[in-house]
User: What shape does this take?
Amino acid sequence: MHRLIFLFFAILTTTTGLGQTDSDILVQIDDQAITKEEFVWLYKKNNSYLLNDSDKKTPSEYLDLFINFKLKVMEAQRLGYDTIPGFVSELKTYREELAKPYLTAIQYTDQMVETAYERMKTEIDASHILVLLDQSAMPNDTLQAWNKVMEIRNQLLQGADFGELAVKYSEDPSSKQNKGRLGYFSAFQMVYPFEDAAYKTAVGEITQPVRTSFGYHLIRVNGRRPAKGQIKVAHIMKRLDEHTSEEAVNQQKQQLDSLLAELKSGSDFATLARQHSDDRRTAQNGGELSWFSSSGMMPEFADPAFELEDDGDLSHVVRTPYGWHIIKRIEYRPVPDFDKLQDFLSEKIRNNAEISQHSSEIFIQNLKKEYNFEQDHQCLDQLNAAIASSTLKSFRPGNPDEVLFQFADQKVSTKEFADFLKEKANDKVSAQQAYGNFVARTLTKYENSRLEAKYPEFRFLMQEYHDGILLFNLSEDTIWDAAARDSVGLEAFYQKNKSKYHWEERFHGWSIKCENQEVKDFVEAVFEEDPEIREDELSDLLKNHFEKTSAKIRFGYFEKGADKLVDHLVWNAPKPDDFKDGLHFVRGNKVSQQPKTLGEARGLYISDYQNQLEEQWIKELRKRYRVRINRKVLKKIEQEQ
Assistant: This one.
């Protein structure tokens, strides 16, 4: 599960070194300038994915929200949130992921896109046996691995059990536990050669050896099923590990049972997730996970999630290898039509270097052309001769400062190549291969360093992540956790606003459905003897007195629509289909409209209190920072939109 990034507004804040002029500056906050280009890009993005046109804002309306966001980001930087090692590391990780599509050259065809769509509609259940083999393996090692995997295949064709051979021979560490069975997957969830072979193999058949970046695989297809689409859920989790005692397991289950009862009584899911979930990556986002398919998540979690029928439905307390969970369905979507997925599939293929042949070579060739790559052939020949008389790692150049090749404004010396050989080379790679790898790494590293300047959309995306993470961390400390911890402030806020959330007219009492007159007489006798009996006590008496289920009883507060029997007998709603006159009855009284207690609406009041704290915070930031708006530039933006 990847961390969900909190992005109140996806904004751009990089403002230096991009050729801006005074006429381009829209907003100045202290000494930080925000250009028209930056604002317009973000404004268009945030007005492009709205469900209703009425939600769209004019540039002037959006500018106020934009400035508030900028103030928070600047405050986070003033407080040093951008220097925290965790932030620096997380942002670096995101940059590495975002950079990947820009550091390869993918070629693909319409047929590949159509094939990917057909595969997205079907999930494959497969098992495999893996014989590890390095991508740069020498011919003798490759032949040895091939012979081994073919011998295993012959045993399978002669009737040997696939699972037993997976345990015995497979070099995938998980095979000892799963006997090689990988479960269901669909397009883009496996390395491409593996996926391609599996989808081209009939159920029950075993493939020829399939070569991937891991080695040789034998794949058996166990089954196929239609894809179930995707679901978005939130969860509250109590983490377990192999060392957790049985007593602790039961205690955590009881904690989630209690939280589930709170949720069913109206508590806010997001608030409880922030307060109680052990999955800290998602807790502060209300427990929300990314969209996933039935094959993209462990079955113990995916199956109960996909069983939820409606948005807002809650699961029972679910156990997975990682712990206990309560799952809330947020939204479901079936596999979309092809025209809606075409661009997405094209992008996925573009980002998958294994799908396109020679993508790396093409990418390096393009960079060489773009940056006027030139190499000193005489120097290279001398280098090859020198390397031939030694091992790659022990090679030392005669003239370390001699330029081996140059491109753009870069000059690369033979010493740099020697350092690369010492660090990266091995005896299985020829000098020519090592040189090619060095050139590719050098060009790619240079290209990587220029992505922000070369591609505005990459710069914008990086700034989104940068500001989103900063704002998440600062908001967590300043607003979310502060509101939940401030019990005195929350109580005072509730006392001032306790009329905001209230119960409509309710019924307080019993809803009882008896199977026959004998059961009803028994229930009425119990009430006559003990009018204050509890629901669990009455249930126990009925179980002890009657052999079979004799009555369905419910006790508590009922709003309109919560119980069809109560609706009919208390508020004259239509008679339920299973209604038995004289045997189905209610016992209790109407309760007039009344405010909800803080406990009953805690999540709602915390959310409102957080909003109040945020408003106060914005006022403080407006006082701390000087904001100046170029009205002429804003008017020009208004005219252009």
The chain is about 50% helix and 15% strand. The CA atoms of residues 30 and 625 lie 6 Å apart. The two ends are 39 Å apart (CA to CA).
